Amino acid sequence: MIEPTMTATPERRNYQTATFLISAPTLAKCPSDRGVEIAFAGRSNAGKSSAINALTQQRALARTSKTPGRTQLINFFTLQNDEQLRLVDLPGYGYAKVPEAMKKEWQAHLADYLHRRRSLAGLILLMDVRHPLSDFDIQLLEMADDRELPVHILLTKSDKLKQGPAKASLQQVKQRLAEWEDLVSVQLFSALKRQGLDQAYSVMDRWLAR
Fold it and tell me: Which BP terms in the Gene Ontology apply to this protein (predicted)?
């Protein structure tokens, strides 16, 4: 299992500069496939929007809701006023109270994006530390493996567990993902307590510097 590195990267990006660019319902409506981007994916109750807001040090860049599953489009954000540097908020999955047909449509667009988007440098996959590795989490990892796309897992809401159980969950995830050790790294993360930001930044900086 790759360990998140804390070493300096060629350039530390200013994630506070993230601004909304566009929302796209399908791959065809996405911005031009140039430059480099990092995508965020996860179950609708995994704290994806909260993590994006914590990483960009903004309160409402990504919409949060008491009703999980509200993100139904592929949302793009630019960094440093440069449309060639982007963060991407992908539709949540597995929890939203929507018709099954709509869930399948979201999943089809998600798969299309992950397989075909050439500017995608890496995937941040968010999982609740108390409920990691759902069936669809595994499907996403398999999709990433198909195109040798690096994945960094944030085990979110780590503040909900004491230190011992949180570390135990981290070790269990590492052990279960040993087969993907060349592409996958994992860490504990808490948006509420702002824990794990530097580790995540280190990975993201490296991907954006490709």
Answer: division septum assembly
Residues 114 and 107: beta-carbon distance below 8 Å: no
| Cα distance between residue 54 and residue 35, in whole Å | 24
Domain boundaries, the chain: 15-63+72-209
The shares of helix, strand and coil residues in the chain, as percent rounded to the nearest 5, are: 35, 25, 40
d(CA 27, CA 25): 7
pLDDT tens digits along 107-127: 788 888 999 999 999 999 999
What does the alpha-carbon distance between residue 210 and residue 142 come to, in Å, rounded to a whole number? Answer: 23
Quote the CA–CA distance of 204 and 40 in Å, as a whole number: 11
Sign of CA dihedral 89, 162, 196, 50: positive
The residue-averaged pLDDT of 143-168 equals: 96
At 149-158, the pLDDT tens digits run 999 999 999 9
Question: 15-63+72-209: what fold?
Answer: Rossmann fold (3.40.50)
DSSP letter at 33? S
